[in-house]
């Protein structure tokens, strides 16, 4: 059970890092009757990208941190904290699995690493879930808002799905480690 939690936590950690780095948080939506699409716009936490005809991809990092909207700054901070915390919880899980396999002195002798990893994985999964779900809710709200012009409407990007999946894996790993501790 601990090895399963370690695998789920490791895959969730990689997914959280990938979701943080991916520029496909918000993807341009095509709601008009026009089928011919010349460019695709991706918006992420760190950069915007434009793909023209699927051949040429241009990405540009955001110029100033101070010019970003406050929710984007908060989402960046939450994802960075989640990535660091996921690495620390993965290391605590490795230590817990290693010492619980080696030492058989008693059930409570090494359980502090297992408990720390479980709580940290649960917290990390929650930290990833917050910005991903808030971004998804904002995209859906703006998509159905008639006041938003058609060129500014966006769809859910691949990074959001990666974030939701990694959040589920991190929460599952945390639940497994908390169960092992109990």
TrEMBL record:
InterPro entries for the chain: Claudin (IPR006187), Claudin_CS (IPR017974), PMP22/EMP/MP20/Claudin (IPR004031)
Bilayer-spanning residue ranges: 74-97, 109-139, 159-178
Molecular function GO labels: structural molecule activity
Keywords on record: Cell junction, Cell membrane, Membrane, Tight junction, Transmembrane, Transmembrane helix
Superkingdom of origin organism: Eukaryota
Membrane topology: Multi-pass membrane protein
GO cellular component terms, semicolon-separated: bicellular tight junction; plasma membrane
Chief location of this protein within or outside the cell: other
Subcellular locations according to the entry: Cell junction, Tight junction; Cell membrane
Record carries keyword Membrane: yes
Known function: Claudins function as major constituents of the tight junction complexes that regulate the permeability of epithelia.
Similarity annotation: Belongs to the claudin family.
This protein's name: Claudin
Organism: Illadopsis cleaveri
Gene: Cldn8
């Amino acid at each position: 059970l601990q090895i399963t939690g370690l695998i789920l936590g490791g895959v969730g950690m990689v997914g959280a890092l990938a979701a943080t780095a991916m520029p496909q948080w918000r993807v341009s939506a095509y709601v008009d009757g026009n089928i011919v699409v010349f460019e695709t716009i991706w918006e992420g936490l760190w950069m915007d990208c434009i793909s023209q005809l699927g051949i040429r991809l241009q990405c540009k990092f955001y110029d100033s941190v101070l010019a970003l909207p406050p929710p984007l700054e908060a989402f960046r901070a939450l994802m960075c904290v989640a990535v660091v915390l996921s690495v620390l919880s993965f290391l605590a899980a490795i230590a817990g699995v290693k010492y619980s396999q080696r030492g058989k002195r008693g059930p409570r002798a090494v359980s502090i690493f297992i408990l720390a990893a479980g709580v940290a994985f649960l917290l990390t999964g929650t930290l990833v879930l917050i910005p991903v779900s808030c971004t998804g809710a904002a995209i859906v709200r703006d998509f159905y808002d008639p006041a938003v012009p058609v060129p500014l409407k966006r769809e859910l990007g691949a990074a959001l799905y990666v974030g939701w999946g990694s959040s589920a894996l991190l929460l599952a790993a945390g639940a497994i480690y908390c169960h092992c501790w109990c």
